[in-house]
Design goal:
Blueprint (H helix, E strand, L loop, with lengths): L21 H29 L2 E2 L2 E2 L2 H5 L6 H34 L7 H6 L1 E5 L7 H16 L3 H4 L10 H6 L1 E5 L1
Antiparallel strand pairs: 1-2, 3-4
Helix pairs in contact: 1-3, 3-5
């Protein structure tokens, strides 16, 4: 594949790249969310059990119901424990998502299972496989895309190479195989 001279186009984007549109990317996203959701549950449920929380009820639920009857130091301890437990779960969930997307997108296949299912992959703007570090930047860029009321994702509909904000930030393209 030949790369176009950087003076003639932005970011050395390959002329033969066939960008994947919003719909294909959305279907891949749904597939990946289902997979990551199941993996997350498989990891988080045992942790919840260790922390004394079950799917069908919080073992400390009665304590929360009688919160006003607790001593101040017990209230503080209970709230701090809840915050710590929630923080641990958030860190685990973000880590699972980060590793899933970054490892798959920087792999030889350049795609998550969802992307593979719909026949798309992630490349650098010059068509090369991206590094784990680049995939990590792309993953955290997606958080920014979402924080902007989804505008970073909506950009896929309007940019020439169908890039979201996170793609532009990471210097990546999502292309059809």
């Amino acid at each position: 594949m030949e790369i176009i001279d950087s003076s003639s186009t932005q970011h050395n984007i390959l002329p033969t790249a066939n960008p994947a549109g919003f719909l294909l990317r959305f279907v891949a996203y749904i597939i990946d969310r289902l997979i990551v959701g199941f993996v997350s549950l498989a990891v988080i449920f045992p942790i919840l059990a260790i922390m004394g929380i079950s799917l069908f009820g919080l073992s400390e639920l009665d304590t929360f119901r009688n919160f006003e009857n607790l001593e101040d130091n017990e209230k503080v301890a209970l709230v701090m424990a809840a915050i710590a437990a929630y923080s641990i779960l958030i860190i685990i969930a973000v880590s699972i998502n980060w590793l899933y997307y970054s490892l798959f997108e920087s792999s030889e296949r350049q795609a998550t299972p969802g992307k593979m299912a719909v026949g798309i992959k992630v490349t650098s703007t010059n068509g090369q496989r991206i590094s784990f570090l680049n995939a990590t930047g792309r993953f955290f860029g997606k958080i920014i895309s979402g924080m902007l009321f989804g505008f970073g994702y909506i950009m896929i509909l309007f940019t020439e190479k169908k890039q979201g904000l996170h793609d532009l930030m990471a210097g990546t393209l999502v292309v059809k195989k």
